[in-house]
Design a protein that fits this description.
The complex is a heterodimer of chains A (206) and B (165). With 206 residues, chain A is α+β, with helices and mostly antiparallel strands. Chain A has a single domain, classed as Chemotaxis protein chec. Chain A contains seven helices and eight strands. In chain A, strands 1, 2, 3, 4, 5, 6, 7 and 8 form an eight-stranded antiparallel β-sheet that branches. Chain A starts with 5 loop residues before the first helix and ends in a 7-residue tail after the last helix. Chain B is of the alpha+beta class. Chain B has a single domain, classed as 60s Ribosomal Protein L30, Chain: A. Helix content of chain B is 18%, strand content 35%. In chain B, helix 2 links the parallel strand 6 and strand 7. Chain B is globular. Classes of the chains: A alpha+beta (206), B alpha+beta (165). At the A-B interface, helix 2, strand 3, strand 6, helix 5 and helix 6 of A face strand 3 of B.
Chain lengths: 206, 165
């Protein structure tokens, strides 16, 4: 991780851009609403800081988690704030779930995560020509710290810092306004950087 | 005016100690373990936020002792001893070790919650520290707060409210 230079982070940013762009298109088609995404931020963050990216360790979020297997293993999260999850379930199923979540609502939210992460990763795979296989997704609604720490396990064997590719997805509410819908987190395992940069023709050892 | 009690925070893969009237807190425990080793007689407590079962899992490089069950327990004992505590008076309470996500045919690393619980118990036993209470397993995130004055451990979850052990 010490070998990562700022231009490497720029390359990761472009990767996030390609993936999230594809996911935003899929999302937009699914909800029949204009969905935009921000320019991704790529940061090297400590384990303490990572939960701050979603509003603190105790913030309740709905998270769809996938393990990425293949040539560039890692973890991926689609994090949606709790109130936004209720709205999304309503948009997807027409079901209002202010109190508790129905099985149908949770299932639709998990499928949403699956579709979006799938389109994100397939764009990545097309672009890099790498073999990337997402696992079956799993959804949970709980404290952000408890959820994100799960994606840090592989990374934590090497150090106390993670490279996070973070993209915000937001709904265009009117000409000037946006409402944040959720965040994508891509956390590549430490072993992934060498094959990833190699596939893009950049040497990590330079 | 009632005094506000100072809370000493323990981050992920971190360790801290306190004495009354301070409290120890760590938030957002998932598969990680909140480990408290305390001595009621000398009113001192150490809390660690343990992520992984064994330091042999670590890859070469700097080792964060608070991250692994074996090294965290050893370090916590040493810390308490530096305050004049005797090992025979040390007791432990633990919480966490949940399975946050369920996968069919999950790999070893995905089962880390239950493995953390097993490891912490094994190493506590090796060091002959009595485990007084635990709230482990399940699939809920936990935030815990330890009060060294009465050795109570308060556990808060999103879906199942609060318990004190």
């Amino acid at each position: 991780m010490k070998r990562i230079q700022s231009y490497h982070l720029d390359i990761l940013k472009e990767i996030g851009n390609i993936g999230a762009g594809n996911a935003a298109t899929a999302f937009s088609a699914l909800l029949a609403k204009p969905i935009e995404m921000t320019v991704p931020s790529v940061r090297i963050v400590s384990f303490q800081e990572i939960t701050e990216l979603v509003g603190g360790a105790e913030e309740v979020v709905a998270a769809t988690f996938l393990r990425i297997e293949g040539e560039v293993p890692g973890s991926m999260f689609l994090i949606v704030p709790e109130d936004e999850a209720v709205q999304l379930i309503y948009d997807l199923t027409g079901e209002s779930s202010k109190i508790g979540y129905s099985e149908m609502g949770l299932s639709s939210l998990q499928e949403l995560g699956n579709i979006l992460a799938g389109s994100y990763l397939s764009a990545l795979s097309d672009f890099t020509n790498l073999n990337i296989q997402p696992s079956v997704p799993s959804l949970t609604i709980d404290m952000a710290g408890a959820i994100l720490s799960f994606g840090l396990l592989e990374i934590s064997r090497v150090g106390d810092f993670a490279i996070v590719i973070d993209t915000e997805i937001r709904e265009v509410t009117n000409e000037y306004g946006y409402a944040s819908t959720g965040q994508f987190f891509l956390l590549p395992d430490p072993d992934s950087f060498t094959p990833l940069f190699h596939a893009l023709g950049v040497d990590l050892h330079a | 005016m009632p005094s506000v009690r100072q809370v000493v925070k323990v981050g992920m893969a971190d360790m801290n100690d306190c004495s009354p009237p301070q409290l120890l807190r760590t938030s957002g425990l998932g598969s990680c373990i909140g480990l408290v080793i305390y001595d009621e007689q000398c009113q001192r407590a150490v809390m660690a936020h343990v992520m992984l079962p064994d330091s042999s899992m670590s890859k070469p490089g700097a080792l964060n002792i608070a991250k692994y069950a074996d090294t965290a327990i050893a370090a916590a004992i040493e810390k308490l001893e530096s305050f004049g505590s005797m090992k025979i008076n040390m007791q432990a309470k633990i919480a966490g070790g949940a399975q946050m996500f369920s996968f069919a045919g999950s790999s070893e690393i995905m089962r880390v919650g239950p493995r953390n619980v097993e490891a912490v118990k094994k190493f506590l036993n090796n060091y002959q520290i009595r485990l007084i209470a635990e709230d482990t397993g399940g699939s809920n995130g936990r935030t815990i707060e330890f009060d060294p004055e009465d050795a109570s451990l308060k556990i808060r979850t999103v879906n199942q409210g609060e318990v004190v052990i």
